[in-house]
Amino acid sequence: MKPKIQVAKTLDELSVAAADRITDIAKDAIEKRDTFSVSLAGGSTPKSLYSLLASEKYRTLLDWSKGTFFFGDERNVPPDSLESNYRMAHETLLGPLKIDPHRIHRWRTDFQDIEKTVSEYETRLREFFDGSTPGFDLMLLGLGTDAHTASLFPHTAALQETEKFAVANWVEKLNDHRFTITFPVINNAANLIFLVSGGDKADAVASVIEGPLRPDKPAQKVNSENGNLYWFLDEEAAAQLKAR
Asked: What is the pLDDT of residues 20-39, one digit of tens each?
């Protein structure tokens, strides 16, 4: 499906546009099934969005207690680490909205056992989605300067995974594992939203959206097989796009 691209002047305007879309998606899911499911992303751009969603204006727009929250990826750090995606999301969104801890599914990095962390998360995904390929109402994604998304980095084994939903992906340039969901999960979401800001991402944005397919551009494999694909960009991130 052709992506829907929205370019905002600033990060603040990008966050407002994305927040409006997210609340519409969540309200639609609640009307249909009385619940909604979200896979959260880490990074500086989502952090701004999460703070906005937890503000007085947005917290009253829908019943957040009906949401269930997962994480698309996580660093191999304790949950209280400043580098933890969970910690950032909890401080800016989940905590302020007083989300029931039973509705928050984080990567259990506190196991300090890579295989156990992955197997536990895989089990949670399979149980929540009744054994089927997870189909989130909404999945938030970021984009790295190397065109990675979630923790699906160029030239890593997880790019080829077709059966597992969650893996520990060894990233050579980081000399560490990253925990990540896989493309079968990403591409089965009803709504996919890329959030990208900053001029350092402009080349990656243009190459993923408009460039030829290349194996070293992982985000090109995001194709929204069953739903909508949105890109929310600021002017700097969109600077190299030929068409908007």
From this structure: 999 999 999 999 999 999 99
Domain boundaries, the chain: 4-234
Q: Are 62 and 23 in contact (CB under 8 A)?
A: yes
The C-alpha atoms of residue 51 and residue 96 are separated, in whole angstroms, by 9
Instruction: Let me know: does 149 contact 133? Beta carbons within 8 Å.
Output: no
What is the maximum alpha-carbon separation in the chain?
Answer: 46
Residue 243 identity (one-letter amino acid)? A
| Whole-model pTM over 0.85 | yes
Residue 205, CA atoms < 13 Å, CB-side half-sphere: 30
CA distance 130 to 207: 37
Q: Compute the distance between CA of residue 55 and CA of residue 109 in angstroms, rounded to an integer.
A: 29
pLDDT in tens, 162-216: 999 999 999 999 999 999 999 999 999 999 999 999 999 999 999 999 999 999 9
Architecture of domain 4-234 in this structure = 3-Layer(aba) Sandwich (3.40)
